[in-house]
Amino acid sequence: MVSKFLYRKEQLRYKKVYRKEKHINLLYKFLIDLNNSKLESDYKKKQTFLIWSLIHKINFKNVLRPTTRCVVSNSSKSVYKKFKLSRMTLKKYISKGYIVGINKNSW
User: Fold this and answer.
1) Pick from 16, 19, 21: which is nearest to 8 by CA?
2) Is residue 79 helix, strand or coil?
3) How many domains are contained in the chain?
């Protein structure tokens, strides 16, 4: 079984990515509000530049890509999202009869 540490680490990754997306969406909203407002053009240009630089920093400072991992073997290769199992462990569990309703098809 996967250790609790690795499972927790994966959960934290997903939270970080969610937070990052949340911040970027807020900055885009600020940009839209700034463009719709009636301010001086020089001030608008400065503020839009600052917001775009913040978006760029958030996007490229710490790039995180959450990976789907197998719950049993902690493998990141060919993981089925529906079962959260890798191809090999899924095959093993189906052959043992732990997962009901899936049959092996042959041509």
Assistant:
1) 16
2) strand
3) 2
Which residues 6+ apart lie within 8 Å of 67 measured at CB? 10, 13, 76
Q: Letter for the amino acid at 72?
A: V
Tokens of 4: 């609790």
Length of the chain: 107
Residues 56 and 74 in one domain: no
pLDDT for residue 91 is more than 70: yes
For residue 30, give Cα distances in angstroms to 3, 10, 33, 44: 42, 31, 5, 11
Helices and strands per DSSP (H, E), number in the chain: 3, 2
56 shares a domain with 87:
no
* Residue 105 included in any domain: no
Same domain, 79 and 60: no
Q: Give tens-digit pLDDT for 36-81.
A: 777 777 887 787 887 777 777 766 655 556 678 888 888 888 898 8
Please state the rounded mean pLDDT for residues 92-101.
Answer: 86
Helix ranges restricted to H, 37-100? 41-61, 87-96
